[in-house]
């Protein structure tokens, strides 16, 4: 079941780049579904305790033709993806850390990809792929050796004694034959690796090798402990050395018990010649190199796909922005073209007005020149002549009406200054007003006779 961003962000309270970190985690969970999200207190080397998001579970590792589920925990720091995550191998009680140049005794993982972490170029999914490829060459955990006695019940285990024999992987040196009077404890092939409760994200019981104890003095021969042989879907974890024939040294007796066949039947391994052993090792090396190459090719392919997807997304965003810009430029171009056409029309109108103005100016100059050439005894009344008698009458009455207005104004000024008395002022104003009324009435009739608009009536 896919984990949504809301569930991931619920464990990332206080993260600076929560959206980027949550999307990175979600992308890694699409490929590695045995990892579970959560948050817990992480104690730094300086003793600081900090609540961090973590991915906890198993990742698949192919080691020498067998598939193992390696338990890990990935701590995502609060400034992720600006800073690298912290990775630990978390062995179960039945496992031990196998230190190497990539994993220290505490289980912390050191990789160039982690130390050279860069935002935008590094992500959790690629980190986990590199972990799978690295652990395929350097297995980080191994199964602890345990001894079985004749009184053990099926599925019961206890830690090995100090001088007990050690598990030797198949195809190692052939074991010596037991001495007369001793019956070694047989070992079931690929004994199960117990996991109480069926922990989520982990497979079922995992087979693991056990130790053979020393023979009992006095001729007592214990029975082998019956181990379940069915229902296991994972091979035993390798020995600490991780190489064929690299088991623990034998016990004080120098005896190594035989490796039995399935079902508890003890069969002696056939003697393998040096040539067959060499060919077997070469075949294993070729198989391991092939698996490593396939794993690295898959990691590189996924990395390239993600980078291409990011490039395509950025290109699509850029194309969208360019299309928007092009649309705006096109709209503005249409507006500018319209404005240019309007400006051209206005320019033509202005040029026409300039020509008209020049023509009228020339006419005025001609009239001024004519008037200046006339003698000084110029009769102003003869300068303005209408086209017909009615218009002449309207012009004369209009001039009379305005003259009466001016006369009444100056009579008021004379009264204000005390030049005339109020009786004389009223007498003259009454006569002038009567004449002005008659002039206006005559103008109205004359305009109606000439079919002129009435709004031209003064006053």
TrEMBL record:
It is found in: Endosome. Residues 2-145 form the UEV domain. It holds the Pfam family UEV. Residues 215-232 have a biased composition (Low complexity). Residues 388-456 form the SB domain. Residues 149-294 are annotated as: Disordered. Residues 275-294 have a biased composition (Basic and acidic residues). Keywords: Coiled coil, Endosome, Protein transport, Transport. GO terms for molecular function: ubiquitin binding. Coiled coil: none annotated. GO terms for biological process: endosome to lysosome transport; protein transport. This is UEV domain-containing protein. It comes from Amphimedon queenslandica (Sponge).
């Amino acid at each position: 079941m896919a984990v949504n961003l809301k569930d991931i962000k619920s464990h990332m309270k206080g993260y600076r780049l929560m959206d980027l970190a949550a999307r990175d985690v979600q992308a890694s969970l699409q490929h590695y579904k045995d990892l579970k999200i959560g948050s817990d207190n992480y104690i730094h080397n300086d003793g600081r305790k900090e609540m961090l998001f973590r991915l906890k579970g198993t990742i698949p590792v192919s080691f020498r033709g067998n598939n193992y589920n390696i338990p890990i925990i990935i701590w995502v720091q609060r400034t992720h993806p600006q800073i690298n995550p912290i990775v630990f191998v978390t062995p179960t009680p039945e496992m031990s850390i196998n230190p190497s140049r990539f994993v220290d005794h505490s289980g912390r993982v050191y990789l160039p990809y982690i130390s050279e972490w860069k935002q935008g170029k590094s992500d959790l999914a690629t980190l986990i792929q590199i972990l799978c490829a690295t652990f395929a060459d350097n297995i980080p955990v191994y199964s602890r050796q345990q001894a079985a006695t004749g009184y053990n019940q099926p599925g019961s285990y206890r830690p090995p004694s100090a001088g007990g024999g050690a598990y030797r992987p198949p195809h190692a040196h052939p074991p010596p034959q037991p001495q007369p009077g001793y019956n070694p404890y047989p070992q079931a092939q690929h004994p199960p690796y117990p996991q109480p409760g069926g922990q989520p994200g982990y497979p079922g019981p995992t087979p693991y090798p056990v130790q053979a104890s020393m023979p009992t003095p006095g001729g007592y021969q214990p029975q082998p402990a019956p181990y379940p042989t069915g229902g296991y879907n994972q091979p035993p974890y390798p020995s600490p050395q991780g190489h064929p024939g690299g088991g623990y040294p034998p016990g004080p007796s120098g005896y190594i018990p035989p490796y039995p066949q399935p079902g508890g039947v003890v069969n002696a391994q056939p003697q393998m010649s040096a040539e067959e052993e060499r060919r077997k090792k070469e075949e294993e090396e070729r198989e391991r190199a092939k698996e490593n190459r396939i794993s690295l090719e898959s990691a590189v392919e996924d990395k390239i796909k993600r980078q291409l997807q990011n490039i395509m997304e950025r290109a699509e965003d850029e194309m969208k922005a360019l299309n928007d810009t092009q649309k705006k430029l096109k709209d503005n171009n249409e507006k500018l073209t319209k404005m240019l056409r309007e400006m051209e029309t206005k320019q033509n109108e202005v040029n026409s007005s300039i020509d008209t103005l020049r023509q009228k100016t020339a006419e005025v100059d001609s009239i001024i020149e004519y008037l200046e050439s006339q003698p000084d005894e110029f009769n102003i009344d003869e300068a303005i002549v209408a086209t017909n008698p009615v218009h002449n009458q309207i012009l004369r009455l209009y001039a009379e009406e305005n003259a009466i207005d001016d006369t009444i104004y100056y009579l008021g000024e004379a009264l204000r200054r005390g030049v005339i008395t109020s009786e004389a002022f009223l007498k003259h104003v009454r006569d002038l007003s009567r004449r002005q009324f008659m002039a206006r009435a005559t103008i109205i009739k004359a305009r109606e006779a000439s079919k002129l608009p009435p709004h031209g009536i003064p006053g």
